[in-house]
Each structure stands twice: as structure tokens, then as C-alpha cells.
Amino acid sequence: MFGCIRFDNVDYCLVPSEKVPAFNGQDYRPGLPIGSRVREVGSTRCFVDELGVDVTDAVPIEEADIWAPSQFLVTVEGFEPYPLRPSLLARLPGPAVDELIRNIKINWKSAGDGSATVQLLWGGLLRERRYQVIELSVGVGIWPRKPLRNWKQYFLIFGSGTKSLVDQDTKPFGEMSSGEAFEPVVFSLPDSGDLAPGETSVIYARKAAMVRTRHVPRLLCFRSTGETEPSHGFVPILRNSAGEFALSKPSPGLSRSAFGQLALPEDPNEEKDQRLFIAVDFGTTNTAVAIARNERTKGDLLQFTDQSIGLNLTAPKLDPTSLSFLRYGFFPMNKKPSNPLSTLLVQFESSAVPFEGLRSLPLRCIPGDTLSAQFARSWPSQQFLKQEFKWEPGQTGESLRVAFIETLGRMVGWELRNNPLYSNRRKVDVTFTCPLSFSTAQRISLDHTKKAFEEALSACGLETTSQHLPVSESLANLYLVRSHPKGLDKALPENRKVVIDIGGGSVDISVFSEKVGGAGQKVVMFLDSLYIGGKDLAEKLLAGRLGALSTQTLRETTQALFEQPIEGGPKDSAWWGQTVQQLLVLRMNEPGGLERLAHSLETNDVAKGTLADLLVLLTIVTVYAIRMAALGGTFEEAVEKDGREVTVRHDIPEAKEIRVWFAGLGSNLFGLCPTVARFNTRRKTVEHVLRIALDKVLSTDAKVFYEWDAIEGKLSVCKGALLVPARETGLELSTIFWADVARTQDAISWSDRYRKTAFRSLDDNDRRSLKMDEFRKCVEASVEAVATTLGLSPTKEVTSLLDSLERAYVDKADMIARGEPDAPSHPLRGATDALKEELGGLMQ
Questions:
Q1: Strand pairing report for 427-434 and 471-472
Q2: Calpha distance 366→329 (Å, rounded)
Q3: What is the spatial distance between Cα 160 and Cα 322, in angstroms, rounded to a whole number?
Q4: Are residues 44 and 151 in the same domain?
Q5: pLDDT tens for residues 633-670?
Q6: What are phi and psi of 194, to 5 degrees?
Q7: Does residue 676 contact residue 790 with C-beta atoms inside 8 Å?
Q8: What is the helix (H) or strand (E) element at residue 639, kind and residue range?
Q9: In terms of residue numbers, what domain contains 7?
Q10: DSSP-assigned letter for residue 741
Q11: 157 and 48 belong to one structural domain
Q12: pLDDT per residue over 704-714, tens digit each?
């Protein structure tokens, strides 16, 4: 029928806005004069024409409801805009909209003045309009790359699309010469069929914008600032042959519209009763994720694929990452994320407001590719780069932790939904690891972080469960070593296994013995944690030396160390610590970068003493862990005797053999040990230093062996956590007491088990008389061993240093005794804090 299009046996009749000249005002449909005013009666399929005749077998569509009402069509450069109202999709079925778009011709390139003549053919009736076209030179990215069933959030990013525009400081969403300002709007079509506009946030001084939709995005529009609905036409968002999103553009193999094909692909056969097991090691410097398909089995590193990065809808000419902060700030666009992933955030601007329910977008995001040295130097001074928020107290630190982890959760959720190994399972059991050195307040904050991760997975269409409380990193390492082939050799009660996990912020220690008691089982002797980590090289040891230099000397020194100078910057230890930390991480991640960094440090007069300071610190934690492992003790075993359960106590002898396993990326810092002519390698130098120090602190002649390369660095904790039974979380310290108090009725000594309540029973005189004789020995022996091996001398009296550590120890003991909420798990936190402050510049 002329002037009508028919779908599913329904006629949709166009009612033109004015008489059609070609028909001289005659009816183009009997009973319905051209220009008649439609009056609804009861339903959309019943109306009365001007002659009073009821029409019940057609749906009237007034022309004014079709065309975009503005004089402008606004689009992304190079993409054809369709001058239709988005609301039309609520009036017409999808196939009808596809038919309209196929029958639209837009002549907008030949005029040369930005004008466009648009012709629409509706059931043989030709209608024409004229518009001005405004093309915005913005790149458009989207994440995730394709729609999935039950996926609840999609994100689009818009930014200046070329480097020249960035160099001109173009603000695509600022006011134009015409006085207009436009911002993007993205519509989705949920199952209800009603158009749903996404949330838009214009950010970074109107240079960029982000949009979130809660359903599959279908239309890209631009609206004038202040408008509630867009009036400038739209560009359809399609799916290509690979199922990925694409913008509508005439090209081979890609239709201009696909509103008649809204159904998402079927999911694979779901294993409803099967779960996946995820463990997250949320670290100070790096964060790792491990996955297993079966409970208490050794997991694998979760691999991020190229499909996990954002998709550039405007490639190749326009690229949203031309604006550098979008390259670093959005879901990765240029390089797939690594695992472990650097624990960093980029904060765009303080005025940006996150989307409802999100702590990350658009305010904060994980950097998407390797940070350049220029980035690392300049952004901390502007407070854009956020790091080490794992330990930051208060609401600010918690917001940063949640922001990081919810973004990580979305990326993990994408991999679980798309990797064929996992995509048929929807239930996920989540475990987080936790340093034993965390205070109660930090553990509560970690619970909030874990909840944010689980909520992010839920938004990805996954069902989260959690059988575990947080697993201590010390216990996770212990379980991983037990599963290692070398962890099974020489299983005797007098032999010890020691795991020293040196992370960015803490050293986690586990000690166990084997074949003790009638059951011949493995026995956890000690679990411990020190607030010492790899970041202390930058923050405490090196940054202090650099920050005290004159401008010229600083420039020369940083040029030598980092192959480029650090220009100026505040004389603030936090700024120096963060900046130097980033440069160190960059150097260490380069092939051969660690060795080059070691050479740069030891050949520079200002910095060479830093390597010796670092070696002292690493030696102290290693010697302390081995000293603990050498101790004997007792083990209580529940056995059945005469039909009832009794407790049998077994003695554990002092160690005769101690095998040390190093874990954590911080263990690589041993590779910065200064060279000594009489040793072949830096590692041989380290072992010599350890041997000298251990001779002074061990009370037995136990043999010590080192497994330097047996554990997979950062992955040891998250892989080990998958092996820990739900009932055994090990969040309490299981360690020696660290102290000596002779005055109390129940005297406290080095070999006693740690009991926090014991501090609360001490009077003031007892606390003031607290000693750390064994820890003092570890520090003193380590300083002497490094000085002797390297031919150096301490710049201060070691006795004075030790006394300051002991005073700090007593201060923390007082906090524990008073029950203060920020009190550490153990008073040695005071001594290790003081140690890092005193150690910088010690060796010369």
C-alpha cells in the first residue's frame, strides 16, 4: 500500500507534515487526506481521519515524529548520521527501523558547506529534509567489546581523536563558535523495548566524556548541553560478524542497521552445580589473580587475552587514546593487562563525579599500558598518580582500594565469561589474601575491598560465593611449598621449610616441619609478618638521598640512575618515594634492567651506599626468619585412645637442616647486591653475607640451603591460597614473642609463643623494661656482615640505632596494651618502622 510499510501484518502509515505536491493534495490513501491531523481513539491502531472515518487496520506515524527536530545533525567524523528521532524505536518494530535506514539517502559530502540533503522513501512516498552536519573529531572506545547475556554495565569513552587536536588543546565537548556545546548520549534497548538513556559524564575540562549503560548499547547520539533528549539524529551501534560492537558505516559485510536482530547469542551449556575458584593477592606494588576449576587444587595464573582490552569504534583514523590520560586511564585500549598487574590508579580530576555505585569510572582507573618514564615523573607532582593505597588509612585509602579492585573485578569477570575453559560456569568462590601485619582496621577495610570485587563479578553475570575468610599470605605460601616436588624431600622432624615472601609492603614468613607425632603430619610452627618491603628501597633508602641534593647534582644523579633526569619536584619524601618507585619498577621490568640498575647505583657516588643499606634490610628479615626456624618446640596432637579422644604432646627438636624458599617479586632485590671481586655472582655475595650473619645468631649448627628460583614470584600467594582449606585461614600470628621480660611472674622470652593479651597484663615498669635481645642480634649481625663483606663502615653507632628500635618497640607495646584501634598486630611494627627510618644513609 502506497505510503505504508508493513511488518507482521500491520501497516505503518506515514502522515506527512504538509500536502505532497506530486499528488496535488489528493488522498494518497483512500479516506485519509494528506495533511490530516491524527487523533488517537483508544489505541495506537485506531484513529479517525478528517472525514470522520474510523481507520482500524493501520498505525499512523506522523512525519513530525520521525525527523530529528534540530537544524543540526551531530555525529562522529566519518560516520553517517541518520536524521531520525531515537524515540522512533519505541513506535516501530526493529525490522521497520532497519527498512527506514536502508531507504535513507544522505548527500552530505559533495556540498562542501557542511549541509546535507536527506531523502526518505516510505512505502513509495518520498520525503526530503535539509540539515547542517557537525562532525566531531573524537575517538570512541567501548568496553566490553561485545554484548553478553546478563552483563549489566557497558562503558564508552570519547576524546580528541588525533594528536594534532590534543596539541591544540581541543575541547570537543566545549562551546563551539556557534555557541552550541554537545555531549554524547547512548541509548540501550532493554528487554522491555523501551529506550533507556545511559549516564553521561563530561570530564577533564570538557576534553573527554564517558557513558555508562546498564543494557546493550544500540544508539549513539549527541545532545546540546541542557537538553534532556537528543535532537540531532543518531548513529546505530551494531554487531559485526565476530559479534563485537561497531558503529554504523556503509562497508562490505556490515549492515547500516540491525535493530531487527536484537537477540544475544546463546550461552554455552552451563554447569550449574560447578564452581570456579579465584584467589586474589592484593599487593602494595602488584596484584595477582589465580584460578582453579576444582577446590584445593593448584591453580593457574588467570590469563588476560587481547579480547579483554577496549575496542576502538573509530579506528584507524580517530583514536580516543590520543589524549594521553585516556590511554592510561580507561579500560586498556592499547595493551592487554598483565597478571600480576601493577597496583596503580590514575585519578583524572577532583571535580569528576563517579557514576552512581562506582568508585572508579570516570574518576579513577587502572592504567592500561606500561607507564612511560615521563608519566611517572610528572603525574605524581600533580597528584594524578595514586599508589600504595593498600596501606593508606581513612576514607581516602578505602575509596582508592575499592576503585582499583572493582575495575580489576570487571576485567576478571570478562575473562571468566569469555574463556572457553571457564565460560560454562557461573558460580565463583572468591578468596583474598592478607598480610599478618595488618591491623584490625586494615582487615575490616580489606573485607570492604573484597565485597567490591564480588559486586563487580556479579555485574558481569556471575554468582559469587565465599567459603573463606581472608587467608594469611604466610599460610598461602606454606601450602604452595608443600605442593612443590622439592618440598617433599627429607621429611624429618628436625628439618625445616621456611618461606620468605618479600612483597612491596611486607615480608610474610612461614615455617613448618614434617613427620611429627604418630600421624606423621606436617606441622606449622610459625607464621609471621614484618612491615618491610620492596617499596622501602625507593621510599626510605634512596629517595632521602636524592631529595637532599642540589638541583644540578640531582639532575646528574637521576640521569645516571634512570637514564633521564628528574626535573625539580617538591622536597617531599612522599613525592620522591612515589616517583623513584615508578622509575625503579620501570627499570626492573625491562630485559636486563635489574642488572643495569644495580650497575648504575653502585657506580654512582651518591647512590652506591643505598645498595648496602638495602642488603642490610634484606639480610635482617632473612636472618630473623631462619633464626625462628631453628627453634625447637612442642606439638599437640588429638588421638583416639580407649574409645575417647586425648591430647598427646610431642617435642619438636631444634633444626638440623633448614631449606629457605624465597617468594614475592621483592626477592628480586637481592639481585641489586653490590659486586665483590672475590665472588663470581651477586647471589654468591648474598649467601656469603647470610653465612656470616647466621654464624652469630644461630645457637645450633644447622645447615641452611636456599631455593632461590623455586617459587613463581608474585604468584606464590594467590596460587597457594587456592590450596588452603576453608576452615584454616591462619589470620592470627603464630610466632615467637620477640621480647624478653624477666620481672613478670610468668617471664616472657624470645622462644615463647606470641600472645597479645600478655602485653595487657604487664605493668608500666614491665613494658618500659621490654627487650628485643634476639631481634637486636639479627640487626647487629646483619650490619656487621654487610660491612665486613663490602669493606664499608656504618655512619652511626649501631648501639644507638638498636636503642632507638627498642624504644619504638615499647611505644607500640603501649598501644596494644591500651587497646587502641590502630594498634598493630605486634609491637615489632614499631621497631621495623624505626629501622627503615634509621637505615637510610647508614652504610658509606
A1: parallel
A2: 6
A3: 7
A4: no
A5: 776 666 677 778 787 777 788 899 999 989 888 888 89
A6: -85, 135
A7: yes
A8: strand 633-641
A9: 1-65
A10: B
A11: no
A12: 999 887 777 67
